[in-house]
Amino acid sequence: MKSDPEKGSMKPAPLLFSCRLTLFIVCMFASFNFLLQRMNISFALVCMVKRPNSTSLSELEASLDFNSSSSFFSDSFDLPNLTIRSDEDLFLNDSHAMSSMVSSSIVDDEDDAVCRRMAASRSNSSKSRFIDDGEFEWSKDVQGAILGSFFYGYLFTQIFGGWLAERFGAKKAFLGSIASLSFLTLLNPIAARYGPEMLFAVRLLQGLTHGAALPSMNVFSARWCAPTERGMLMGIAFGGFGFAAAFTFPICAFLCENFGWESIFYATGAFGLLLLVVSYFLIYEWPENHPRISAQELEYLRKTRAVSYSSSQKSKKIQVPWKKIITSGPINVIHITHTCFTWGFLMVGMYMPTYLKEVLYMDTSQNGLYSSLPYMGMLSIHFTVGTIFDFFRRKNCCSVSTLRKVFNTVGMVGPAISMILTGFLSCTNIEFGIAMVTIGQAFGEFSFMGGYMLSIFELAPKYAGIIIGITNTFGVLPGFLCPLFVSLFTPNGTREEWILVFGIAAGMNLLGALLYAIFGSCELQSWAANTERRASSISGPINGGARRNSQLQQNGMLKEQEMLPLTNENRKDQPDG
């Protein structure tokens, strides 16, 4: 069966300067803020915590001296048991201090030695802040607990957050999430100095308050998007995640080097509070609530969107078919696929800085740049993937399900290859290696913006917010499982240990690609269609595409109805946004 025809036959309302475009641009800044305040701790810990098994700078300064005549690229040399330097000196031949860090593999010993020598070279030619100069001496287990604490809280509010957005309004849930998350971000430095337990508690609270963020954005999508614009508009909204993934580490590196690690939390928290004010004035619950929307745009959205508006919508109890949602095969496939995709995404996002620090001995500025490049690759194609998908969908070249499976497979196999390459990065060809990783990670956008995630809007658009909440509950699991795996498998931070960690992440991606290719679907579910209510006289008819109209008509739920002309009187009793 071919993909759905475009809903409605009317000409789309102009997008430029439209209210719907404004809303999704604000959502883009919000998604940037959400991921920025989630990921900032990953790089902050690199600045806050001393490197494992490193000798203190004061001890090094008192005991060793840098041999400036050493050849950094000689073909043969004795294994140099060195420790990374202070800002003035680099120190060699501390065999006792470094013996615990020498790998049993001769090849890895030599590669590690080269990385140390190159780090020594950088140390004398740069004034960059060095990542061994941390304030805290926290173990891998403690750091893993802190990284995972956000996700412990996030796990328990996803479904509840989706319900809140549907029941009491997406705007209230959206603004509440921004406000609480930003305020708690400002408290991170204070909590850290009270101890890791207090920082764990604050990060856990941040996770709890973040639960309604993404479900709210998906509720907006169901209410403010025509199906053939959804790929582009959601691409804009989710573009903030790409910007945050690409620029969080360089921003944090700059702040850490110039203003100290505390500034990472102060700057990101202040940005969130500023966004809160802007969002309050620019976001509205429904198009019908917006005081500045044009008649043409409102009529277009009424006729094409997936859900209908009612002036009493806020006061009605939402009847959620929980059993149908929980037992739906296509919905459960999305849950599993999202878990697999998130495992790889978080592994790179949370641990690339640590990997570059422990294995390749990158200083702060280089670490920030190289850690961000894979996500800059994703960002480079983010805004085109949705448009490409919409183009093929309009061409009716295949069913929507088949199209999403193709996009999803490309989007999960590419990052899997990338993660395997990550484990074999070498400081002797770091630029080439990072370029290959960047290209591989860029393919992830095909999965997120054209694959499994947006199929929720085809399966059950009315319950998109709730289903997204359930999906993200599964997707949160890697958030606290990854730190446990990393803590368990990388006690010494050696290359072999990291190869295993990234290999597991690649395997998860391949599993998700296979499951969605076999069991994924984008067919409108009967329990979602049967609960669609026809529009009130305020909103006009549900004007679906040919296939969806046929389904609704068969169930006796679609009736033609004239729309009232848009007047100020028609808006009198409508609730505020």
Automatic annotation (TrEMBL):
Gene3D superfamilies: MFS general substrate transporter like domains. Residues 97-524 form the Major facilitator superfamily (MFS) profile domain. Residues 558-577 are annotated as: Disordered. It is a multi-pass membrane protein. It comes from the Eukaryota. Keywords: Membrane, Symport, Transmembrane, Transmembrane helix, Transport. This is Sialin. It comes from Orchesella cincta (Springtail). The lineage of its organism: Eukaryota, Metazoa, Ecdysozoa, Arthropoda, Hexapoda.
